[in-house]
Amino acid sequence: MRTRRLRLVALLAWTPLFLPSLLLAQERRIVPADSAVVVQRRLALVVGNQTYRTNPLTNPRNDAAAVAAALRRLGFDDVTEKYDLTRRQLDDVTREFAERVRAGDLALFYYSGHGVQVSQENYLVPIDFQAGSPADVRYNAFPVAQVRDRLEESGARLRVVILDACRDNPFRGTRSSAGGLTAMNVQGEGTLIAYATAENSTAEDNAADSNGLYTKYLLQALATPGVTLKQVFERTRDAVWLQGGRRQRPFVYDGIVGDLVLTSVPAAVSTAPASGAVPDPEVVAWQAVANTTKVAMLEQFVAAFPNGQYAAAARLKIAALAESAAAETAARVKASELLANGKAANDRRDYAGALRLYLEAAQAGSTRAMVSAGALYENPNLAAGVPRDYGQAVFWYRKAAEAGDAEGMNRLAWMYRTGQGVAEDDAQSVLWDGKAAAAGNVRAMSTMGWRYKDGVGVERDAAQATFWYRKAAEAGDGDAMLTVAEAYLSGRGVQRDYGQAMAWYRKVAEAHEREYGRGEAMTALGRMYARGAGVAQDDKEAASWFRKAAEAGNTDAMLQLGEMCEEGRGAPSDLQQAVAWYRKGADRGNGYAMEQLERMYEEGRGVPKDPKQAAAWHDKAGTTYVPQYRQTIKRLRPADDIFRYGKAADGRRDYTEALALYRKAAEAGNAGAMAGLGGMYAMGHGVARDDAQAVAWFQKAAAVGDDEGMEQLGEMYEQGRGVPTDLEQALTWYRKAAAAGNEKAGEGLLRLGGT
């Protein structure tokens, strides 16, 4: 006895991981190693249908809630509860559940409610069930075989279907087949189907109790410490048969080879046997690791008991886990190769081939491939054999999102926001944007910033807006950096901090991926030096930044340089240089620069006095804006700048601001803004989707020579959006756009076989 006690003490010192295992009941049956089944995750869908229009039941809601709670106590990773479902809802929830299941999982489906059989087929009865005859059942009820098939197609290691669904015929008064459910084949290894009673007989709702007879004893079996999957159904069968007066005999169709311990550490149980004997330390240790998927724990067990009665079992399980890991690695490698081949096919414009490869990689578990497949379905190349299918796009984005892919989450949020392939639902859009942002998706972070800034789907909150913009900025988003810099400069959502504003503007000036962003940041830095905002006033430094911004195409910087040259700030006054800078800004559409040129010609500053030139620039400036704004032109931005700011807002998905800026610039005659406005209507960005309005704005842009407007018109004619499908018109506009230098139009010509 002393030796056994010493061995137990040694075991407790060996690893703290086994301390909880001392709580195991001594009567627990150990699963033999060669039959132990290993699963990755345990997921369950629990459904209770009770509130029927006719023949309502008493216990299904209680049954389902109790089973869900029991499964959670057993440590299931994901338990979904659903109640009183229609046929469509049964279809949706079982499909969504199967989509969440991955290879290696245990997937369990429990149903409590009415069930019927017709023509040797079993059906679950939804609460909206209506049938005048058994022939109506196949259209109005939900087939059990579809549940079984979906779980088997999911790739789950084990599939368990529990049907407490053999209650009385829900459509009395019509002719039907035999009562209860019929026998059901198990299609392949790994599936177990449990019936509350034998075929062609009915189960009791047990209205006098809080649970149906079958579920009452199922719950007791599930609560047994250390019980295995098959023991649950054995114990339930015996208890129901004996306690139910031998009127109801549950039945199981079992296609599972081996068995699974449902709990590795049950609820607290006395560690000392009734006799006072010391438990066998190897048994206690094996009970703690019998259901683990951690190789290290099993290896520690073998090291502690190399010649014990369960050592061989542990070694076999280690080998099985290694084999499973190797298979997973092989699957990942295959998925990676398929994804790479899909990208290569996409790059060479073999879009149909790319989609096929993406789908294969997606089936192998690649979330990147799921997103890529969804993107092709969302934005297809129609002439290359890829049909537009928003439903499929949503399907694959959801698969990726539910597997933890941040890009999939962000794209799914977009589909909910635009109502493409799914009912428009801003609450779901906010939910998935938030998940994507939390998972590190930069675009989603910026989108959350925009949502809080403008109050889109959330309460307006400047502090939260700045928080999310800053997260995006810290992840390298140039437009978010600009927004953060502006927030610190203005004190919007944060305490005003010129030092922080300058630091962020410098980052943008150095790192923004687009020229307009760099130019905007450089111009802001120039203004800060010119005004001495958070830094010593320094005209030379201001002029240096304005010059860099002007070289990047910023017309505000050109205007500022003209004023500095005229006023002699940072360098001796140079009126000719001032005129040169004003002219550069004016030539790029800056209305205030036009006014400055008008004044220089009127006064003869830096150029000979020339009333005609002054009048010409006056007229140009006058047509740049709506006349009533003429006297306050200094407070307005020229059309080109408004368009640039609109593009910046569009790029960071601030569609409300982008729409307003595009409209203002388009009304002022900016062709790019007209095309941008058409794009907003075509995509439903910041405005209800309206293809006819999109076509109208694209036509306006094309009429004044905008190549993007021409290319977009080609797409609208090709896709029949806002206009009847007309491939000849599409080719005409693609040719015009290509001739104007639009590269994307070349793709349209290739699709339609044009030149």
- Give the spatial strand order of the biggest sheet: 2-1-3-7-8-9
Average pLDDT across residues? 81
CATH topology of the domain at 37-254: Rossmann fold
| Uncertain parts | 1-34, 172-178, 264-274, 625-637
Largest sheet: number of strands, sense, barrel closure? 6 strands, mixed
Q: Give the name of the CATH architecture of the domain at 37-254.
A: 3-Layer(aba) Sandwich
Give the structural class: alpha/beta
Distance between the termini: 94 Å
Our count of helices gives 32
CATH class of the domain at 37-254: Alpha Beta
Radius of gyration: 35 Å
Shape: elongated
Strand residue percentage: 5-15%
Number of strands: 9
Task: Specify the helix fraction band.
Answer: 55-70%
Draw up the topology in text:
Blueprint: H1 2-14, E1 42-48, H2 60-73, E2 78-83, H3 87-100, E3 106-112, E4 115-118, E5 121-124, H4 137-140, E6 142-143, H5 144-153, E7 158-164, E8 191-195, H6 213-222, H7 229-243, E9 251-254, H8 281-289, H9 295-304, H10 311-347, H11 351-363, H12 367-378, H13 390-402, H14 406-418, H15 426-438, H16 442-454, H17 462-474, H18 478-490, H19 498-511, H20 515-531, H21 539-551, H22 555-567, H23 575-587, H24 591-603, H25 611-624, H26 639-651, H27 655-667, H28 671-683, H29 691-703, H30 707-719, H31 727-739, H32 743-752
Parallel strand pairs: 1-2, 1-3, 3-7, 7-8
Antiparallel strand pairs: 4-5, 5-6, 8-9
